[in-house]
Each structure stands twice: as structure tokens, then as C-alpha cells.
Write a structure and sequence with these properties.
Urease, subunit C, domain 1; alpha/beta; binds zinc ion; nine-stranded mixed beta sheet; TIM Barrel; eight-stranded parallel beta sheet; globular; 14 helices
Length: about 475
């Protein structure tokens, strides 16, 4: 039989095994795993000698063209997904944020229209945000019963996961609303993806920074010299406010039986609380981390341009980073996503004199896979199979993407030929986001994707993007 494409002489790496093999592809799917050097008949052959052949990576947390007070995030679906592809990611899961008064399914339809230029396959999480204003005495907006009822429509339309926020004015859910939404998640058998920080404490600390800066920054040495200091972002989102919220979120999940993924964990004490729950047998709550928490520290926030590195939850000290690698290798953390949320230098400069006006987010969709290879595998913190488990296999399982994340006959032919011998400086000029800065400037990683195949089609060849905008498909996910 003649195959469409043969990847020959490579080392196949999956979450379970590392072995030499040829991978044969036909009709967009993996057709066969053959002995290395098979010389099987194929219309096209890519030699992968000295390279790893891994499943296309899955990034289940990124924000393309997201509406914020500082304008849209700068990557749209085309630039964002092209950067993803060049970094070895063949599936992304972004978000739908409905406007107040707009139904969840109408918001989904509008978002799908916006996603048309995507170059890789994609899914969508549905955000559950407050949609009704408080009465004269209330201080927090609430989630309506209509919203809760609409969750089933969103679920039936392919949104298998719901995003909820425990912080951020405008997005924050009260404990009561979190409970109500989680009950519906449990009923549907869906997954809750939760931004976990104590929003009330954080909001209070942010206001205090304006009236009693000396108290808010009392632990910082040398003292901060004004409200423009980036480190204030971390000082007003202390580890205690994250740990407490993790325990509260997990309690709500246990009360309702909702399956929960705690997003972007980078705080050691908060993640250890998750580890303690897992140790006592809780097997339906999981943790995600992101490369920024494994590679960077809060020293970035102390720079003159520290506002660029403001993301939430904030970067933490070196001790947290060291502990997070242990929590990754002992499987307290299940998966690694990017939380790619690109704001340019002009948008970040909105808060040059007041950290509270800086839009929160750092980029990372293109660099995630290689950063985890470089700082994880090459530094001996995790092995090759862990790398594939964290970036490909577990995200596929967690986010209901059964055709993705593994190399086996019948699976979608989403495959990356990763060359561990390629060096890549991570400066903005070398990357393909629409962003005008890089969070990893000055770092050169060893190992980079050479070829990327999506549903059997070569979309990155020798490090160059050769795919077509609009070829990505929406994946209706169902657990
Ligand atoms: Zn995010």
C-alpha cells in the first residue's frame, strides 16, 4: 500500500514509550507504525534521523483576540495559531466570553466566525461570567439563572469545559455563583477550569497600595519607589491569597462533585494543597502550570519594565519555581499550557505610573514545547515521556480530544519532528506572534520543531510555515 507520507528513521516518543520507528500516514490519520528504515512506499518521505517524532502538542489555554479594557490581545486566530504551529502545537483551546445579554450559543457562533482563519484545529472553553448588575446595596455582579440554564446548550454545542474566575473585577464569581455553576458542571459531566485567587483580598490590597504603599510593600527591600513598580503586582497577590482560594475551590468541587482543573498554578504552597487533596484520594481535581512559572521568577517584575511580565497569578520567587518542578515531576501537576495572553508594549505602558492599569498576561504559545524540553528534559528534571505526557497526552485526555495527543494507528496524523540539535534564540524577532517583545529574550533553547504535520498535512517544513489560513477545524468536544 502506498501511504501519503512516511516519517522515517526517527525516534518515536509517546507518554508511554521511546522507540525507533517509521510512522506512516494516510488520509489524514496515522495508518501504521512500521519498523525503523521500513522503506515503505509513500508519496512523500520526511527523514527524521536524529529527531524525536512526537504527537502534535496541545495548548489548552490561550487568549487570541480577547476583549479587555486595554483593547484586544494582539494575536488574532491567524497569527496566534501560526505561532502555535511553528512551536509544535497542532491543537489549541481558546475561550468564548459572552457579553451581558448575549446567549452563550450566540457568543459561541460569533467566536467561531472570528476563528475562521485558524491554521490548526481548535476547541473552545465557555466562560461563565457575571451577567446581572447588583441592586443598590450589592457590590458584586451575579450570574443569572438564565446563564446557568444556557450551560447545557453550550455543552451540547461542543464546549466540554467551563471557565470560571475567582478574581478580577467584572469576571469574579461569588462563592454562591461558583457553587451554582459547579453544580451544573457536575450535572453535565463537563470540566470546570478555574482561575483561582482570592479576588476580594487582592482587590483590597490593590486599593491599599494607593493609600498605604509603605504597608503593602513593607516586605520589599529596597523599598518600591511608586505605584509604577511591577513588583507591586506580586505583593498585592500574595501566596496566601492563592493557597486559600485553591482550598476553597477544591471544597466547592468536592461539595458538588464537579470535575475541576485548576488553571495556571505557580505558587508552591497552593499547589501543595492540591497535592494534599490528591493524597487523600480526591481524583477529580487536577492542576495546570505554565512555562513562565517554571522558567521565570518575580525578579522579572523588579525590572524597570517589569510591567511586561505582569500575569495572574503572578511570577513567584525562585524557591517556588524549584518546588514547582518537583510538583511537575511527581505528577501533582497534570499538564502544561501556555496561557498565551499577548499585550504589546504600548498596552502595557497604560500602567507605567500605576501597576493597577497594566493588562495582565505574557506570551508563550510558540515557546512552550521547547522551553519544557530545554529546562525540563535537558536539565534532567523530567524525562522525554513526561514531556510528551505533560504537553500532549494529558491535555488531550483532560480536554476531551481523543483523536489528538498520541501516536497510534487511527489517531489524527498530528505529528511533530522535533530536532534536539536545533538551537533557537527566543527573541521577538525570531518568533511569530504579533507581539513586539518576548518574555524569554536572552534565552536560547536547544531543541526546536523542524517539521509539523496536522491531519496528515505538512504545515511547517524545515522551520517555515507552509500551511493555509482557515485550514484549522473546530473540534466539538464531548467528555
Ligand atoms: Zn488565561
Amino acid at each position: 500500500m502506498a501511504y501519503d507520507l512516511l516519517i522515517s528513521n526517527g525516534t518515536v516518543v509517546t507518554a508511554d514509550a521511546v522507540y525507533p520507528a517509521d510512522v506512516a500516514i494516510a488520509a489524514g490519520a496515522i495508518a501504521a507504525i512500521l519498523p525503523s528504515g521500513s522503506r515503505a512506499d509513500a508519496a512523500q518521505i520526511r527523514d527524521a534521523a536524529d529527531c524525536y517524532v512526537i504527537p502534535g502538542a496541545i495548548d489548552a489555554h490561550l487568549h487570541q483576540s480577547m476583549r479587555t479594557a486595554a483593547g484586544l490581545t494582539v494575536d488574532d486566530w491567524q497569527t496566534g495559531s501560526t505561532a502555535a504551529a511553528l512551536g509544535g502545537t497542532t491543537t489549541v483551546v481558546d475561550f468564548v466570553d459572552a457579553l451581558p445579554g448575549q446567549s452563550l450559543t450566540d457568543a459561541l457562533a460569533a467566536r467561531l466566525e472570528q476563528a475562521r482563519p485558524a491554521v490548526v484545529d481548535y476547541g473552545l472553553h465557555m466562560s461563565i461570567q457575571p451577567d446581572i448588575d447588583p441592586g443598590p446595596t450589592g457590590y458584586m455582579r451575579r450570574v443569572s439563572e438564565t446563564r446557568i440554564r444556557q450551560m447545557r446548550d453550550a455543552f451540547d454545542s461542543g464546549c466540554a469545559s467551563f471557565k470560571m474566575y475567582m478574581a478580577y473585577a467584572g469576571n469574579q464569581l461569588s462563592d454562591a455563583d461558583l457553587f451554582r455553576a459547579l453544580r451544573e458542571v457536575a450535572d453535565l459531566g463537563a470540566l470546570a477550569c478555574v482561575h483561582v485567587e482570592n479576588g476580594d483580598v487582592i482587590e483590597t490590597l490593590r486599593q491599599l497600595a494607593g493609600t498605604d504603599l509603605a504597608w503593602v510593600s513593607r516586605k520589599e527591600n529596597p523599598p518600591v519607589n511608586g505605584l509604577g513598580a511591577g513588583i507591586l503586582h506580586a505583593l498585592t497577590r500574595p501566596p496566601e491569597s492563592e493557597r486559600e482560594a485553591v482550598i476553597r475551590a477544591m471544597t466547592a468541587a468536592e461539595l458538588t462533585g464537579a470535575r475541576m482543573l485548576i488553571f495556571h498554578m505557580g505558587c508552591a504552597s497552593a499547589t501543595e494543597a492540591l497535592g494534599a487533596a490528591r493524597a487523600r484520594g480526591v481524583d477529580f481535581i487536577w492542576g495546570e502550570t505554565c512555562p513562565q512559572y517554571l522558567v521565570l521568577t518575580d525578579d522579572c517584575l523588579r525590572r524597570e519594565d517589569g510591567r511586561l511580565w505582569m500575569c495572574s497569578p503572578p511570577l513567584r520567587p525562585q524557591a517556588d519555581q524549584d518546588a514547582m518542578w518537583k510538583l511537575v515531576s511527581n505528577r501533582t501537576i497534570d499538564l502544561i499550557s501556555s496561557d498565551h495572553c499577548p499585550f504589546n508594549q504600548t498596552q502595557k505602558a497604560l500602567g507605567i505610573n500605576d501597576f493597577r492599569k497594566v493588562p495582565n498576561g505574557v506570551p508563550g504559545v510558540e515557546t512552550r514545547l521547547s522551553l519544557i524540553h530545554h529546562f525540563g528534559v535537558r536539565r534532567g528534571r523530567i524525562d522525554l515521556q513526561d514531556w510528551v505526557r505533560l504537553c500532549c497526552a494529558r491535555p488531550a485526555e483532560m480536554h476531551a480530544l481523543p483523536m489528538k495527543g498520541h501516536i497510534a494507528p487511527g489517531a489524527d496524523a498530528d505529528v511533530v519532528i522535533f530536532d534536539p540539535g536545533l538551537s533557537k534564540p527566543l527573541s521577538a524577532g525570531e518568533l511569530h506572534s504579533a507581539l513586539d517583545w518576548s518574555a524569554y529574550d536572552g534565552i536560547t533553547v536547544d531543541g526546536w520543531p523542524r517539521d509539523v504535520i496536522s491531519r496528515g498535512e505538512l504545515i511547517v517544513r524545515d522551520g517555515r510555515f507552509v500551511g493555509q489560513p482557515g485550514r484549522g477545524r473546530f473540534i466539538r468536544r464531548s467528555p
